[in-house]
Amino acid sequence: MPGTWITTRAWLLMLPLLVVMIAVIGWPLVDTVRLSFTDAKLVGTAGGFVGLDNYAKMLGGSNFQRALITTTWFAVVSVAAEMVLGVLAALLLNQQFRGRTALRALMILPWALPTVVNATLWRLIYNPQYGALNAALTQLGLLDSYRSWLGEPGSALIALIVADCWKNFPLVALIALAALQAVPRDITAAALVDGAGPFNRFRYVIMPYLAGPLLVALVLRTIEAFKVFDIIWVMTRGGPANSTRTLSILVYQEAFSFQRAGSGASLALIVTLLVTILAVAYAALLRKAAGAS
Amino acid sequence: MLKSTRNALFGAALVGISFSGQAYAETTLNALFMAQAAYSEADVRAMTEAFTKANPDIKVNLEFVPYEGLHDKTVLAQGSGGGYDVVLFDVIWPAEYATNKVLVDVTDRITDEMKKGVLPGAWTTVEYDGKRYGMPWILDTKYLFYNKEILEKAGITAPPKTWDELAEQAKTIKDKGLLQNPIAWSWSQAEAAICDYTTLVSAYGGKFIEGGKPAFTTGGGLDALNYMVSSYTSGITNPNSKEFLEEDVRKVFQNGEAAFALNWTYMYNLANDPKESKVAGKVGVVPAPGVAGKSEVSAVNGSMGLGITSTSQHPEEAWKYIVHMTSQPTQNAYAKLSLPIWASSYEDASVTKGQEELIAAAKRGLAAMYPRPTTPKYQELSTALQQAIQEALLGQTSAEDALKTAAENSGL
């Protein structure tokens, strides 16, 4: 049958890719699973089998629970803010006005910046002694003395979230803008003629076009935010008093600073599992949304 | 025409490259250094250039990372099968590096001349369990820097000799309205905080480990943290200290925004450089203070060494390079940001000239250098202590409870 031949050919064409995928993703994953059942050190001893000990120690430790809360808080707030900002920016950039092209190009800039550069930039902005934020807020009369934004547990995480949003909302905006361009002009015009207000036009005319792409952006950003490492490592290294220590930072410390490859691997797999659960949940949501429209 | 000229040039360049490659049996060493404090990157490059000029058959690739990345980068390279031949290491790592066989034991390579010439205290930087894992290269401790002009305006005639005196003098400066927060420290959640803490622990006669168990929860260890907390809460310490690293301390001090600062040797000449600093010519330096009845001065061993990694394919050439970098002539020539490891250098006028005050402080400070604990679990202990310091400073818990938690999480 021609059908089977096509299927076989498809598999054959994909074979090289599959081999590469297994080599670069499959094998390390299997090795990480193996490692997570041992007490291996990063250098030196190969490590003996310890069963589920690593998992029990990691899950039961207060460090893990606290990092999970910090990570969740970081992911929820930053992704929510990025979605709202992104859609607002997209709606704005979808309007006809002078300098629109320039503004669109400019907006991609933060997203194109390497995270480490972004983090260093924000560190300078937040500098307690010479930072632009303190200077601006005092000059506006909103603050009477300079504050240590990254030195207080209360503000450090929020400061990180702001820095992360600034970098990542353009991605959401970009995806939303592409979706907005697909909304047929005659439909919005018709809605306008029918007397629909701005909110109703957004809710019933634009939103159906936006929902799918926005869900994709949501999935991407949530997974990224849950794995956040570099921006925090550069800006606070998990401080002050561990108030910004996320799961990825914990994995890094365990595996590389303390060189306990075994328990580091178990922690990394726990994080992977959490992210997978999130991804699957979102995928189900996506399918439902696709079915609905 | 133009194109053919370019091709000819390109060809000539290629020929040139292949010839120079064949002329010597070249060895390439990869060396990992740090991009801050002590010797500057330019200094290290210049020292290395002198080496390759004398040894044209050895090429040295230099890589610089911030101190915060030095340990993990070394260990990661080792874990993945090597990459570096020569690495810079901090005094706190030989125990771990020796246990995990990251560094080569070089005890037998050290000559009698080196044994006799290098300051005895400097050797502790590279030793673990009676063996030596490299050569000391940066000899360093934290000093108390002060702004002479501010002290004079406050009517203070001599810098503090004890930590209590420091607190009193800082309070006088604060009360007279000369500065809101006169003292700057590096108390960020990083190793820098442990160096300041250790200086205080040594002043109060405390111990980190006794009989293999944590011993910092009582006595000098507790007194040291209590001093930090009271200095912080009373407002004589710059509250931003808890996110400062050494370079932040330097900026604040050389902008005239601190009367006192605890920092490494390198700050002396940079803060006295009019191009860098607003307080040039007003910088005073003394050993970190002591505690009445317990100590005259205090100091932390913040030295660093150069070692050969166990994965290096060229240990002979690597050792040759280390010998050059740590030699007395090299060290004397670059003594402005880091003082030499060689005892007789301190009698050499070309080394001491223009930094007599620093040398005087160094003679007392270096002799009192207190080690951070030598344990393969150092990184864990340090991470736990960093957390304890910050929690106590922020008032989340008492100094006593914070240290107890740190002891539990120290892995000891």
TrEMBL record, chain A:
Membrane topology, from the record: Multi-pass membrane protein
Q: Which UniProt keywords apply?
A: Cell membrane, Membrane, Transmembrane, Transmembrane helix, Transport
Q: State the InterPro entries in the record.
A: MetI-like (IPR000515), MetI-like_sf (IPR035906)
Pfam families, per database record: BPD_transp_1 (PF00528)
Q: Among its keywords, does the record have Nucleus?
A: no
Query: Gene3D superfamilies this protein is in?
Result: MetI-like
Tell me where it resides.
Cell membrane
Domain (ABC transmembrane type-1) spans 68-286
List residues traversing the bilayer. Answer: 12-30, 73-93, 105-125, 156-183, 204-223, 265-285
Tell me its family.
Belongs to the binding-protein-dependent transport system permease family.
Xref: PANTHER family: BLR7065 PROTEIN (PTHR43005), INTEGRAL MEMBRANE SUGAR TRANSPORT PROTEIN (PTHR43005:SF2)
Give the protein's recorded name. Answer: Sugar ABC transporter permease
In its UniProt entry, the species of origin is given as: Sinorhizobium garamanticum
UniProtKB/TrEMBL annotation, chain B:
Highest taxon, organism lineage: Bacteria
Keyword Signal among UniProt keywords: yes
UniProt keywords, alphabetically: Periplasm, Signal, Transport
| Intracellular or extracellular location(s) | Periplasm
UniProt keyword NADP, yes or no: no
Question: Signal peptide location in the record?
Answer: 1-25
Pfam families, A to Z: SBP_bac_1
Q: Which InterPro entries match?
A: Bact_solute-bd_prot1, SBP
PANTHER family from the UniProt entry: ABC TRANSPORTER PERIPLASMIC-BINDING PROTEIN YCJN-RELATED, ARABINOSE-BINDING PROTEIN-RELATED
Family of this protein: Belongs to the bacterial solute-binding protein 1 family.
Q: What is this protein called?
A: Extracellular solute-binding protein
